Amino acid sequence: MHFVYYYVSVWSTGSKEDFEKLTPRTSTTFNAPYDYLSVMHYGKKFFSKNSGNTIITKLPEFQDKIGQRMEMSPIDVYKLNCLYNCSTSVSFLEYCSFSSLNICGMKSCGKGSAKGWKRMSVAAGGPFTDHTNLNKTRGYFMHAGTASGQEGDSAWLETKRMSPTRECHVQCLQFYYYHSGSPSDQLNIWIREFQNGRNSTGNLHLMGQITGQPTFAWQFHKVPLNASKPFQVAFEVRKGDENSTGGFSIDDINLSESECPHNVWEIKNFERILTTADYDSSLLSPRLYSTDGYAYQVSIFLRETFFGVYFRLMSGNNDSALQWPCPWRQLTFIMLDKNPQIQQQMSKQINLITDPSSTVFDNPHKVGRRIRLNGESVYANPFIGVNSFLLLEQIKNRDFLKGSTAVFLFSMTGEQLCLILIRFIIE
């Protein structure tokens, strides 16, 4: 059965020899469906001698998607797992969209006169759709209302018990929340650790808190965890005052044994901004910090049908205690594909390594220029980055703009990892 058509008449000279037919005796698909999104595909114009299409997909909706280079597709990952006999994930622990009545084995209870968490498709005051489907079809989320009860009443939702499998004892909890309550209402994220299988109460540790002004929209949130023993994740919604209305909702929970991105930058109405802003105008992130104290800023240069991503070091609170020039730190830039299941995401990622021989990574007080940032005088180095990070066409082919908001994730990791990567590349 044919899934693509090759137009030999527009191939450039010598390229025909790059194609070889294989028989089922020398190849296998592992019974996977045909994958137009595989990174192994050539693009639609590859080997063209006149800019015409050399590949035509049988399903027209994949014509502009074939040949993508953002990330391995989920079917690519499936085939690699089959090829190398990998039956389990190294880092993935749990995903829940609350589509099933058993809510992924979670348990809900209330303290005081709180009614506890409820599985809903619509909540009074919002949200009016779940995050998983976002108005496409009916879906479900968990909601804890704060309109009734007394100040201090709380509703608890606890996951099933899980056990860390990696020696690093690092987990990352990612989920979406909707806040429609009072600014003083709280969504607290706890872990309950158990000493052994016989222990039923465990020890509670507060890992994160969401409070403040209501969002009235689904928001991405991440919480770093550090469980070293069997544990549960607990979501507590606490009523902040007697006049509270609405509540908190959560959806699309992903838990993995990996380090969380250090910083999150959300940009609302990103497509409209990209397509209507002046060419080469820019968006500037807040001043961000690495885990070891380096201050930096990210800029997105808007170019109507695509955008570039740039980075610069800035003066910060820890400069006198840091090593300069900034030595061998890896910067990771990710635009999040907001597919609800983390194993199905195809996020776009690039990496940049700070080279201490380059002046752009030296102390901003020494090589930077003075600018104003939120009313404060700071020093900023020149930008460095990539002119074209993603095309608008590529962005719209996935869930990058789900809910009209773009989510960017940034991390700046330490010298040891970068030296390992550099040594690996050299060898």
CA(first)-CA(last) distance: 43 Å
Portion of residues in beta strands equals: 25-35%
Instruction: Write down the domain tally.
Output: 3
| Helix percent band | under 10%
User: Looking at the structure, what is the overall shape?
Assistant: globular
What letter string, H or E per element, gives the SSE order?
Answer: EEHEEEEEEEEEEEEHEEEEEEHEEEHEH
Can you identify the CATH class of the largest domain? Mainly Beta
In DSSP terms (H or I, runs of 4 or more residues), the helix count works out at: 5
Architecture (CATH level 2) name of the largest domain: Sandwich
Poorly predicted regions: 417-427
The total beta strand count reads: 24
Average pLDDT level? 89
CATH-defined fold name of the largest domain? Jelly Rolls
**Strand-pairing-aware structural class:** mainly beta
| Main sheet overview | 6 strands, antiparallel
Q: What would your notes on this structure say?
A:
It is a single chain. The chain is mostly beta strands and 427 residues long. The chain folds into three domains: 87 residues, 3-Layer(aba) Sandwich (Collagenase (Catalytic Domain)), CATH 3.40.390; 165 residues, Jelly Rolls; 164 residues, Sandwich (Apoptosis, Tumor Necrosis Factor Receptor Associated Protein 2, Chain A). It has five helices and 24 strands. Strands 3, 5, 6, 8, 11 and 13 form a six-stranded antiparallel beta sheet that branches. β17 and β18 form a beta hairpin. It is an enzyme of class 3 (hydrolase). GO terms for molecular function: metal ion binding; metalloendopeptidase activity.
Quick structural gist:
The protein is mainly β. The protein has five helices and 24 strands.
